[in-house]
Design a protein that fits this description.
Helix content is 24%, strand content 21%. By secondary structure, the chain is an alpha+beta fold. The protein has one domain (77-326). α4 packs across α5 (198-207). It is globular and about 80 Å long.
């Protein structure tokens, strides 16, 4: 056999690339042809990686452009508004037990990427709410450091979880147990990226109440941090599976969580149950994650009618009593 047709031992080629190359071609092809065949075998995977990279980078670039060109309207974060957003009625006027999870964009440029979440609970008949944050200063777990539904340094919070009544009575002890026994509670434990941070803390509490089937937004960086040391297991709602490499790279597939890919904190995915796309920086585009109807039945809007409603919205600008108003009408089949 002429030497110019022999395969030169110029290096080893990955087996998974060579499998798509005909053995007869390998036996007679020059070295440069092998490189060409290997490149052609790798090309589909290369295109997939480029698309994935584009889907991760483009939303972050859009979020950054919005921040730098439009701004967040908060001004100086040190003097920003932290007053009540009017999403909760006065505790004394609402005797039922309450569970809320709120979220708002983080401070300054970090708001390009992430939200800060916190937990609010109130036992039945209690005269005050209890708010729990996980922060970067002092001891991480901060109790009642801010108004229960307060703006997060000027950013208006959104309601992620809302449960009232007897259901809340059942779940509050589970949430309090997680808070009181949370592993990362000492000075210096907080780590903004990739965790443990505020979103890790809230996710740990939600994991204790899978019945809620609550899902934190894709901008809740840190929610995928393996605070319990597990890199593989069932999803928080117990409807799927997840796998993670120390929170840096991960994959979750579940009926409630949908499909999520975590790449160094940037979450990309989609939801079929409540159709939506999930993008890093931009968040969830589509139907709100919400909660199941069985749980929505216990969430009430008592300001005007006292009847169960799908959700409440923030008060309109200039509203003199700054109370929430009932939002979307009651869903069929929810009494």
């Amino acid at each position: 056999m002429p030497s110019r047709f022999r395969i030169q031992p110029s290096g080893l080629y990955p087996l998974h690339l060579l499998l798509r190359i005909d053995a007869h071609q390998l036996a007679w092809a020059p070295s440069r042809t092998i490189w060409k065949l290997a490149f052609e075998a790798f090309l589909p995977l290369k295109k997939l990686l480029l698309v994935l990279l584009l889907l991760l980078v483009a939303p972050l670039a859009a979020s950054a452009a919005r921040y730098f060109w439009i701004g967040d309207g908060r001004g100086n974060w040190q003097t920003a508004d932290r007053s009540s957003a009017g999403l909760l009625p006065p505790a004394v006027a609402h005797p039922e037990a309450v569970i809320r999870v709120f979220g708002a964009r983080t401070v300054r440029w970090r708001g390009i990427f992430a939200v800060h979440t916190w937990i609010v609970v109130k036992e039945k008949g209690a005269p005050t709410y209890s708010r729990y944050d996980y922060t970067a200063w002092g001891e991480p777990i901060r109790t009642n450091g801010f108004a229960p539904d307060g703006r997060w340094f000027g950013a208006l919070p959104e309601t992620i979880v809302a449960v009232d009544g007897e259901r809340a009575v059942e779940l509050i002890p589970k949430i309090r147990y997680v808070i009181e026994n949370y592993k990362f509670r000492n000075y210096g434990d907080y780590n903004a990226w990739l965790g443990p941070n505020s979103n890790t803390f809230v996710q740990a509490a939600l994991n204790a109440v899978p019945e809620l089937r609550a899902v934190l937004p894709p901008t809740a960086i840190g929610k995928d941090f393996p605070y319990d040391g597990r890199w593989i297991g069932v999803t928080p709602s117990r409807t799927g599976l997840y796998a993670s490499i120390a929170g840096y790279v991960g994959l979750a597939i579940g009926w409630v969580e949908g499909f999520e890919v975590n790449f160094f904190g940037a979450v990309l995915g989609f939801d079929v149950r409540r159709p939506a796309l999930k993008f890093p920086g931009l968040g969830r585009l589509g139907f709100a994650a919400g909660q199941d109807a069985d749980w929505l039945r216990t969430t009430t809007c008592r300001v005007n009618t006292g009847r169960p409603y799908w959700r409440t919205r923030a008060p309109a600008p200039g509203d003199p009593d700054r109370r929430p108003r009932c939002g979307w009408p009651k869903l069929p089949g929810i009494s």
